[in-house]
Design brief:
mainly alpha, 78% helix
Amino acid sequence: MDVQATITAPFNYRRWMPYWAVLRTDMRQTLRSWVYRLWVVVTILAAGGFLLYRFGVHREAGIAQPAAVHTSDLLRAIALGSLALIVILSVSSISSERGTLADSVLSRGISRYQYFLAKWHARTLVIVTTFAAMAFAMLGLFHFLLTDDLTFGGCLAAVVTISALLAAVVAAGVAVGSLSNSTVVGITALWIFLYGSGLLMALLPYSLPTPEKVLARLPYVLQGEYDLNTLTDWVFGGIVTAIGLAIVGMLGFSRKDV
């Protein structure tokens, strides 16, 4: 009598295992990319030079250097100045891998939804975490070297506020990159979208929070003078915007030829 052989799988298949694999791989690739390293190096050098200059003026000339004002200027400059490299990092997450994307998706190694989510989450985690780490480091240095007018709650609120803005930009970049056939085309389309959105927001009523208005109030936020409800609405709006853009990109990517 033949005995039926029992085949045991070497491991238990987990549905989201491909997602975690792509997430970890993309995070490592992002940390090793020259665009990411250029962003970190340029930001550190610019912030260090600005801090040394302000500290020198404070020591030699004896002029009071309020940390909140100069820190807000530096944070705003870093956030806006980093947009160019952040746009490249976010758009290239999917558009630069068209050659291997077809093999991964068509072989059913990973679904399109998992692939998009992994890329979006990886780029958002790396960019937002890196910015937050650099921002808190700069805030700590300004706190000890210049006039102490910073509050912990204000610093946390300022970093979270800018991080919500960057998260929305990253989501827009990944969405545009997933729908474009070329990284250059995706970067151009994203810049047009960002400039167009900025012009439209400038026409909104003054009572509504816009990126320009929120960034202009950073000195008061760092000093602890802020409305928690307003900042909460801003952060919630940034998260909702990021999720909405990601959903649009994911739905379009699921129907696009690879």
